[in-house]
Amino acid sequence: MADDDSSSTHHISLWYFVIAFLCITLTQLVHAVILPRALQLWLPEASLVMLVGLVAGAIIAAVNHELLVEAVTFKPWVFFHVLLPPIIFYAGYSLEKNHGHVFFANIGTVTLLAVVGTAASAAITAGFMELVMQTSPASVKRWTTAECFLFGTIVGATDPVATLSVFKSVGADDTIYNLVFGESVLNDAAAIVLFRVIVPFADANDANGTSDARAVGNAIGMLVGASAGSLGIGLAGGFVVSLMLKLIARSRRRGVEGTNEAVHDEVADVPTLLVYVVGFMLYGAAEAAKFSGIVALVTYSVVVGHYAYWNMSTSQRRVSIEFSRVVGSLFELFVFAYIGVAASASVPKNAWSGELIFSAIPITMLARAGALVPIFFLANCFRRRKIPAKAQLLCVAAGLRGAVAFALAISADSPNSDSIVATTLGVVVFTTLVLGGTTAPLA
Q1: CA–CA separation, 103 vs 320, rounded Å?
Q2: Which of 118, 99, 92 is nearest to 172 (CA)?
Q3: Cβ neighbours around 250 below 10 Å, total
Q4: Phi, psi (5° rounding) for residue 303?
Q5: What's this model's pTM, rounded to 2 decimal places?
Q6: Rounded to whole angstroms, what are the CA distances from 75 to 12, 23, 289?
């Protein structure tokens, strides 16, 4: 009986993926062809896909079929190991072609926003959520102090999937795009590492000060180690692949000259395959080593986009960039549909708390503003080209939370994990639909 249920769930999951991609394609057509231009600006493609997912999830919840609900339940391993890598790879690989000079010119500010901003935002969020717990009525589920900090790390970082999707659809300014892009990718490492540190030390937070100090020391050590390890893996892999493609390019040129004609045919497809296979292998290696696969992959993709890309033939460049763009864009939209379905269908009804959600939304927005505004002020003290107030406002408003936050919330193991997941979902849906829609007028 268990085998039959497992087989049925598998078949339902396959049909779910097929139907989901079909719906996404139709939604893209509706957004591009039917919706007026003014409405497209206020309702980005990602937001529309999430709305479709919310409606589909509501229908699935109404049917209330156990195997169907199980099949559409959000699975973190699917997101982190299947959907996310192609999205991040394209973002880094296309950076040199689209925004490279602007990104590297702002690397110092990006690092400040990613590391200091994430930690400050998480701490501010945790402090205010603790205050909410102390002042809420007895009917509201009480999170522990450790759970408040856990929630702060979950929603403290912006999501590269959500941010990139909305920013691409509205054509944001290069400087703004790269500030938020760099922050959203790099602070993912800080958020995931802080999350991994707080989970095992949750009990220590209720103990003595020595345990707290040890937890903080471990957090700093793990953050530095994970960042260095991820960067090292990405850089090493990127330079090795770039060197290999340079050697292949030399062999190809010799073949064109007639001295080794067979080599050109044999290696024609190698560069594109090599770039992709090694990139996803490095992502898996970084995750297996408890580093950040996202940081490793974006570092690798930036390196190969800067060096290896120019050692490809014209046709190979076109194929590699267009293939990664199509796959990355499709997976981005699927992630939003996935979140929408999960929000309506797979979260227990008793986990939802209007008071927690409506408290968490302004808290996360205020925490982001409180963390980023001082950093912008500090950065402008040392920058030759100042970041204008409009750009700062857009960076604060573009603090979209998405699948990364949701996946971390589902991975949390605590007494009130269902409540944390529901509250996180509320923040994710609000920031994507509301903040995502207001990005276009600000840009």
Answers
A1: 22
A2: 99
A3: 12
A4: -65, -50
A5: 0.80
A6: 15, 20, 21
Asked whether 442 and 389 are in contact (CB, 8 A), the reply is: no
> How does 191-214 read in b/e, with b if 16+ C-beta sit within 10 Å?
bbbbbbbbbebbebbeeeeeeeee
- Distances in Å between the alpha carbon of 439 and those of 35, 190, 336? 18, 25, 17
Residue 113: partners with Cβ closer than 8 Å, 6 or more residues away: 179, 182, 183, 187, 372, 375, 395
Q: What is the predicted pLDDT for the residue at 362? A: 93
Contacts 24+ apart (CB under 8 A), 372-380: 372/113, 372/117, 372/121, 372/396, 375/109, 375/112, 375/113, 375/116, 375/117, 376/109, 378/112, 379/108, 379/109, 379/112
Q: Which two tokens stand for residue 250?
A: 């030399």
Q: Looking only at Cα atoms, what is the longest distance across the chain?
A: 82
Distance CA 125, CA 195 (A): 14
Residue-wise pLDDT tens digits, 144-164: 888 888 899 888 767 655 566
- Contact predicate 144/129, CB 8 Å: no
pLDDT above 60: residue 261? no
Percentage of the chain with pLDDT > 90? 12
